[in-house]
Structures are given as C-alpha cells and as structure tokens.
Amino acid sequence: MRSVSLVCASAVICLLFFSCANKPPENKAKKLSIVTKLKEHAHLPVKERLALYYRLREEEPGTYDFGNENELTLYGYSYLWKDSLADAIAIFDLIVTEFPNSSNAYDSRGEAHLLAQDTNRALLDYERSLLLNPDNFHAEDIIEQIHHPERKPLTVREKYEKVYSREEYGADLDQLGHKLLSIHPHALKFITKEQYWKNVNYRKSLITATTTYAEFAWHCNAIIASIGCSHTASSTMQNAYHEYALLPLEKMFPLRVRLVAAKLYVVDPMNNADRVAVKDEILRINGIETTKLLSDVFEHLPSQANIQTNKRQQFNTYFAALLPYAFGLPTSFEIVVHGKAGAIKLRTAKKVATELYDPSIRSCAKDLCLEEIDRNSAVLTIASFNYYEWGEFPVFRAFVDSTMKVVRSKKYRNLIIDLRYNRGGSQYASIHLLQYLIDRPFTYYSTAQFAGKTDILHGEEVLKPNEYVYDGNLFFLIDGNGTSTTGHFMSLVNEHDLGTIIGEELGSNQFCTAGQTLFRLRNTKLEVSVANNTHVSAASKLSDRVGVLPDYPVEQSIEDYLARVDAVKNFALSLARR
C-alpha cells in the first residue's frame, strides 16, 4: 500500500467548530445525547459501546438523539486524534451505516483508513464522498495524491506568482458570486442584490493579462467582505496558499504601525529606526493619503454588519500584509510623516511586523483568570468562549464555578468582566457564565437554524439561574475583536441590564451567521469558507446593524498604547471606586 500524506484535516471538522426554526414550544423535551451515554461507558471495548448504541436505538428511540451526525463525527475524531485508529474506524463505520448519504461520513472514514495505511479502503471512501458531494475538494485532492503520488503541489512562491487566464479568473469570480448567495443564509442582508453583482463585475474589470493569483485573492476578498459576515472569508484552515501566508517577507510592510482614532502611527520602526521614530504619524504611503488607503483596506475585510471597530482591530493585527495588497504588491514603500519634509524611503522588511495582541491590556497570560484589585474589586478575564461541550467545556465550567466561589466568599462589591479579544466559541460557555449573572429564568436563543437540526438546541429552552447569582456591581469591558458568541453574550448583558459596558463598539451583536461550508474555486483553487447557519440571541429587539454599544466609549490613545496603560480597565476601576 502506498503512503499518502494528508494535505489537511477532514473538511467535515470545518463544519463543526463554529457556533455563534423559530423557537420550539418550551414544553418540548430535549433529547439526551447518545454520545454522552457512550462516553459514560468508555471503559467498554468499542464493539460493546456500539452494541449499546443499537440497543438503545431499538428500545429508547425517543430518549436519545440518534440524528446528530455532527456529534457522532466528533466522537469518532476524538479517537482519531488520540491515534486510536481501530476505535475511530469502528465509530465511522457506524456513522456511514446510519447516514449513508452523507459525504462527510465517508470523508471521515477515508481519513482514518488513510492514517491506518489502508489506501485501498481510503480510496473507496473518498471516491464515494466526492460522488455524494462534488464540492468536496479535500476528497478530490486525496484521490489525486493516491493515483499520482509523483505530482507535487505548487510551492508557496510559485502559487503567489502564478498567472491564470482572464477567462479562468472571470469564471472563478462568477462561481464565487453564485456560491456565496447559494450557501449563505443571509448573503443579501447588508447589501442589495444589484450592488452585490455590481461589485463582482467591477472586480472582474480589474483583471488584466498579468494579474497574479495573489492579486486575484485580494479582489475576491472585496466580494466576500461585501456581504458583512465575520464568519465568511477566504479560508485559512491549514491553507498554505492563503494570501497572508503567500506574501514573501520582502513584500511586507516594514514598519509596525497602529491605527488609533483614525490616525496611523509608527509604534516600532523595525530596521528603519534611523529614518522614522516611534509615534510618527503617517500621512501618506506611496503617494496615497492614509485615509483613502485605509478605506480601501477596510473594503476587503469581512466583519459582521460591516462593523468598523472590528475592521480596525483586524488591520492592527494584519497590517503588514494588508498594506502591500492594497498597493498592488509594490517592490518598495515611501511614507510621508507629520512634521517632516519630503518622502522617506523605507528599507525592505527583515522581520514580520505583525502584532497579534495589544500588550497593554493583557492582565493574565491565559484566556481565563481572576485578578484581585483590592478587597472590594476583582477583574475576571474571559478572553475566549472556545470551550465546546464535546471538548474543553468542563475546563471552562470548572474555572467559572471555582472563580464564582471565590467571588462569593470574598464578597467583592465590584466585578469587572474583561471580554476584550474574545472572538466567541460555544454557547455552553456563554450560558454557563450568564447563569451566574442573571437572577431569573431566561432564554438564550430566539432563533437557531441550521441544516440537519433534529432537536432543540441548548439555549432555546428556558434556562435557570445558578443557586448563587452575583449581586454586586458588574462592569463589562469590550472591543471590536468581540465576535460571534461574544455578541450573543453581550446582547443579553444589554437586554437584562446586568451592568455598565465600557470600551468600544463590539465587533458583533445578537445576530450571527456562523457554521462553515468550505468550497474551492475551480480554476485558481482559492478556498473560501462560508457561514451556513443562523443564530440569534433572545435580545432580538436590538439593532443588528451595529455592534453592542458601550455605555461609556473609551479608546486607548496612542500615548496609552505606547506607555502600556490600560485606559479601558482604569476607567472601569475609577467607576467602581466612586
């Protein structure tokens, strides 16, 4: 049997990691998880666990949820990731039997067979998967590798420079335009159909005989961003050909910069320290005014409802790649700064200048922590809800439970909950924290719509508060990074008037289109991930055209940033001490 290296994890996983039907009657009982039941018998051999599955399906079909393919798939992958291939294959066999028309079922089992070096069975599964879903490019690639192991993919540099024909680019832009509309449940919520296709055709008009793949990807980003969805973008899922990964170092913008209050500042001159200084305000780059340049960059950045604070946060993370793409990938950069005469030519980048986090606002090294300020006040950092019920949710639950015991015993009068940089995750984590903050029964979702839904979702039922609910003063710190589930959480904070909200407009709100369907353009093979479900919190009376707004707008100044002063948290502490 020939060994084949996996290009990426099975595409099915991309469908399962993203959560953001009208509400069923409240008296409808939620079925129990069959996977949870199987996990309770983890000590049994897999054959006996599967026998238990079939017995329960026969004897108690109304008690357990046997229609949740995603949950069973993740159960199988939990063994695949532990290299328990025999158990994983047995579970995937079950899924193929239960869901014979599922492309994902065969794709998953094919991956397991491939890891087990059973190329023949893997090939059969991938061929069946591709037959059921012709868009499954992962299966297409693996089949190609099995049949032609001598063929090598393009290197990153080759892909970056590759030029396709105008006809190929045009066909791919048409495919992109139609695919976004057919997959995304609300593609035209924030843009008219006329304007959408006008944008597609405009991008087609920019294609020339020398347009490279990298330049084409930038045009695609403008089309994708136009629908106003933070969960729809050119895919970075283990994709070596993503436009940021493609960009050679010598093409990157050579300064570390930061956009603050609509002004672009140098925060680290890197290898240009003899030419520019920290805090220099950049007025022009390569002859273009900064304001015009940033407007163009923002048109290419996806964000929910086109919320500008989220786009600004993205820029402050990825400026090193975004600026070159906005200029058409120039060979050099010249800048004009405030108070200095003439243009300054910059040396080529020697090191990537990207900054993933603002170091002035990280109160702890982990996503979750409690920091006592004084005997009356504490800061609870929740920098992620990415703790799913089939994975690390017990870690989140244990942390919150133990933390709230401390808060209760210490009798803190003021609790500051810092949600900055929280890009969302599982509703289980969000709900669990809210149950310590809302003192009456509540509903989390007003809408939860997605393909394959067989039961009410956790959050659609009426939820009870915990025995202990915090009754002191609550303050919530937010920023434009807050997306997805964070929008649901903060919309309910707003709806229930739980406390004072401080910071900048959140990058999301109660309306969220999430989930993920991956597809690939036929000619250029650019990969795109598209939201495929809709989740709306019970705070549905809020506007879904803006992010959750703060009671007190506070933004870090450039002086605060450079001095590592957390102005937002300091403002919250000043309110707490009044």
Number of contiguous helices: 20
User: Total number of β-strand segments?
Assistant: 22
Distance between the termini: 73 Å
CATH topology of the largest domain: 2-enoyl-CoA Hydratase, Chain A, domain 1
Strand content: 5-15%
What does the average pLDDT come to? 92
Q: Which superfamily, in CATH terms, is the homologous superfamily of the largest domain?
A: 2-enoyl-CoA Hydratase, Chain A, domain 1
Number of domains: 4
| Backbone structural class | alpha+beta
Largest sheet: 6 strands, antiparallel
Low-confidence stretches: 1-18, 21-27
Helical percentage:
25-40%
Describe the structure.
It is a single chain. The chain has 578 residues and is of the alpha+beta class. It has 4 domains: 11-147, Tetratricopeptide repeat domain (Serine Threonine Protein Phosphatase 5, Tetratricopeptide repeat), CATH 1.25.40; 156-246, no CATH class; 249-345, Pdz3 Domain (Roll), CATH 2.30.42; 360-509 and 546-576, 2-enoyl-CoA Hydratase, Chain A, domain 1. It is 39% helix and 15% strand. The chain contains 20 helices and 22 strands. Strands 4, 5, 6, 7, 8 and 9 form a 6-stranded antiparallel beta sheet that branches. Strands 10-11-12-16-17-22 form a 6-stranded mixed beta sheet, sandwiched between helices. Helix 11 (193-205) runs antiparallel to helix 12. The longest helix has 19 residues, at 308-326. The protein is globular.
